[in-house]
Amino acid sequence: MSLLRLDAVARTYPGERRLFAKAASVRAVDGVSLTVEAGSTLGIVGESGCGKSTLGRLMLGLEPPSEGQVEFDGAAMPAPGTDAWRKLRARMQLVFQDPLGALDRRLTVARQIAEPLVIHGIGDAAARRARVAQLLTDVGLGEDLAARHPHALSGGQRQRAVLARALATDPALLVCDEPVSALDVSIQAQVVNMLVDLQQARGIAMVFISHDLKVVRQVSDSVAVMYLGRIVEQGAADWVLAAPLHPYTRALVSAVPTPGRIARERIVLTGDPPNPAARPSGCAFHPRCPVAVPVCAQQTPPLRAMADGRSVACHLAHPNLDRAA
Ligand code: SF4
Fold this sequence. Notes:
By secondary structure, this protein is an alpha/beta fold. It has a single domain (about 1-315), classed as P-loop containing nucleotide triphosphate hydrolases (Rossmann fold), CATH 3.40.50. It has 10 helices and 12 strands. An 8-stranded mixed sheet has the order 6-7-8-3-9-10-12-11, sandwiched between helices. It has a 4-stranded antiparallel sheet with strand order 2-1-4-5, covered by helices on one side. Strand 4 and strand 5 form a beta hairpin. The longest helix is centred in the middle third of the chain and has 18 residues, at about 185-200. Bound molecules: iron/sulfur cluster.
């Protein structure tokens, strides 16, 4: 049984009201189905605005789906804000992009790490102190930092403190939304390595949301590529990111700097991602797709299973071919 299961999940927001015009609703996530197994890592990639952060919030039950179902550990996700959902939150934690925004500037590091233990009634004061000390060590922060406030820490130290707080309740699932993109490049690798070590040692399932394909490939077992709210390619990270089949995935992968690859191999997409409130007909990627054919503007390609186990939503990707035409 999967730890997390999403079945045809969609999230729609009302559009902005305009004078003399009907407000068009925005489908930020549209018919997403996926699973996350205990102890494994699913990477979610795509350009900004593709719906990946909304998907992360739906996975944690922070907002309810407009359609479809989210299941955690075999049971339907309770509605946000209910007692059942609050109880479950100890088992599912979120790590944000901006550690300073995620921490309370008025509280010491130790108090913030202990906060989830207090909220969920775990341990007495002495047990919590011992747990905080252990967590500080686990994330590579000295105990001398426990009494500091967030502004007295470096960016990397703050993200380690956020991680210690997220791990305090021994979660089964960690959703990390761009967890290192606000950090200095020199610090990113250290924090990612520490995150993976802790995740593997504790058997935590992780959803790693990022626009950085290099990091996603490093940490993920499987990957879902999103475009305008939908998954366009999904499968084992080594297959999807080493030999992408969908033209959009190919363009993303080609943009990752690789030693020895010449610049002309890069696929440059023209135009910005379209407005989610005015989704293009057929394949939503067709206005930017370098290999689009007439049918692409008319028919939406379904997400189909390929021979190697991945799924691809492209008219030109055929189940028995190794690569799209
Ligand atoms: Fe490109 Fe057509 Fe495939 Fe969409 S369905 S990715 S437009 S080739």
